Amino acid sequence: MRGKWLAFLCLLVTNGLAGWDFPAHESCAEDTDLTYFLDSSNKLSVSSALSASRKLPLKKSPQNLHYGYTAGTVWIYLKVKDNPEVLKCILELANPQLDDILIYHVEEEKPIQVSQMGDLHTFQNRFYKTRHYTFPFRTENQEFLISLKSSATMTVPLTIVSRDQFVNEVSLDYLLLGLFYGIMIFFIFFGFHSFISFRDKAYLLYGLFALSILFFFMDRDGINYQFFWPNATYWKHRSVRVFASIAMAFGVSYFIHILQIKSWWIRTICFSYVGLCFLLALSLLIFDPHFTNIPTIIVSFGTPILMIALPMLSLKRDKIFAPFMLAAGLTSFVGLFVYSLSVTNFIESSFITENSMKISTLFEFVFLTFGIHQKIKIFHRSRLESKLQFGELEKKSAVYKAVFDTTNMMAHDVRRPLDKMTKFLNRIQKLSPEEVPQYVLKSASSIGEDIKTAEGMLSELLAIGSKNDYSGETHLCDFIPQMANGKYKYTITYGGPIKSDFFHLKRVFENLIKNARQATAGKTDCRFWMETQDLEKFVKIIVGNSGSSIEKDDLDKIFNLFFTKGKREGSGVGLAIVEKFIHDYGGEVWAESNGYTSKGETVPKRYKDDYVEFHMTLPKGEENG
Amino acid sequence: MAKKPLIFAVDDDQFYLDEIRMEIEKQANYKLFLGPNDFEQHVNPSDIQEVDLILVDYDYGTGTAIKSQMAEYIRNDLKFKGKLVLCSLHEYFLKDEEKIRKDYDAVLHKRDLSWERLEGILR
User: Fold this and answer.
1) What pTM does this model have?
2) B111 part of contact set with chain A, CB < 8 Å
3) What is the ipTM of this complex?
4) CA A339 to chain CA centroid, nearest Å
């Protein structure tokens, strides 16, 4: 089987490429006369057909004959002239859908059958192993009679060509087929790839639609018969219509899905049609193809009609895909219509008319693919927008959650002294006069501490929105040791004044120290440090500690109001106040932890163990500024 | 005369421990612990089997009873079979709520702290 595939591919490529090198030879048509007629009643014997043919006037050039659907027999009578050149010629029937081709050689006024070909016979019966039916002239001055029968439309693309010309034609023919199949394979992959990427059933149906269309054309072109089932005559006799029916079924299913048709009656019609297509495919496997001629015509025209009608009904709702599908439907219809006019002899047969279905199919899939491409583009755009919106919502939600967390904690801390006071008042009513003084003494300090905590929390909150007096200066040589309070190791490179009110700077430091204390609670061997650096017009102050760290993803959020990262003690206000005060004095503040900063930078990791450092810059005071 | 129930209470705030004591001292035997560390240091599995109810504070300033896995310690390590009650001034426990529902028999708001409520839980 693999060998057949390889042969198929090699033939497409090598024949196709080699085809361009073959020189054209002289025409053989001049050396033959022929005539033809249709025996609709199918009653003529071979001898009678020969006699009848001889009475008809002979013609020079053969034609692409079309008789439509007929159960009759087409007889072709051929008289080859007395010319040795004729031995270089071949009678060629360019891959028609013919069931039975019988070739008789007239010898001593008697027609003797010399060859039998057609879909009812194995591929091996052919003179040349190509998709076309061929018969070489072996003697000069001879007469031939050919009888043709078909269950499909009776199309007889009869030509008489030289052998060289035939080779050239076949090579070009296979090259063009290869190109056509290659493009179709691209559409198939596009469909399946889109399905794998987006998990949308519509794209799977698109891929299956393209695949069954490819098989339909490969079968119609005789490629499947030549390479895949050369001996399966029963199947060959039916396969084209089976593939066509399956293609139509997948096609209409695809249209319903891609246009997202919701209307019950339209869906019912379409799915009934799909059912009819599958039923037709199934019945073809059982019954003779003659019985399925009418359903085949219905199905052949039904699909392009649905392909036009469905997008027209959806145009208002779907402005992205429906216009492309409408264009595809119109193209498909035109292709089929041109081909039908050709096979019914309304227009003259030509390369374009013979291949109109293929050409229209290519355009049809180009339109459908462009439509899908547009849909995918819009999908990507909306996904990006959703992602951005989701990000925004996530941010908002994080803020709301942080606000709620903080409010919950604040409510607890504010409620505690109130609850204690209520309990205190209730209790002193129950206690004996002797017990009261001792109880008051014990409870008062606890309640007082809680009131202080609640008050501190409220004033921190108010400080966020307050308008402060941003004047005043603080001398770092006094301030830093006071803040270090024996717990922080400090290095003062600049000890002069900075532009910051003492109490504001104290609040900043207190918050940073509190933050470090909470982060390192219960941990031993933690180091704490403070440092000042001279930066010409500014002073850099560093407050750091080891033994704790801030996750890289949280660093950019730590100055956000109410950001606590689930920390019970923090209100999410402290660092927001730090940032506000430093900014208000024209300075900058950022955090650094384990080699990452809150500005999103990566810096060399300064210490082996975990650490957090807050860096602040503040303008120098007047004395040194 | 019916046997008095035995109640353990864990809180990091002495005010509330005193309040609990004054609420239950006439009706129950009790033992009070100033925070989870105190509880862990002074309670062993043999003591706890006699206990009818353990009252655990939720908020310990530096952490919560959920964060420090108090319920797991009491139930799994100490094999306590009695009533485990969470006591707090909080109205909402946010992400801890599901775990609290699973691990504790009841949640008692501190403003409602009274012997009657505890008696109701004990029943």
Assistant:
1) 0.59
2) yes
3) 0.91
4) 34
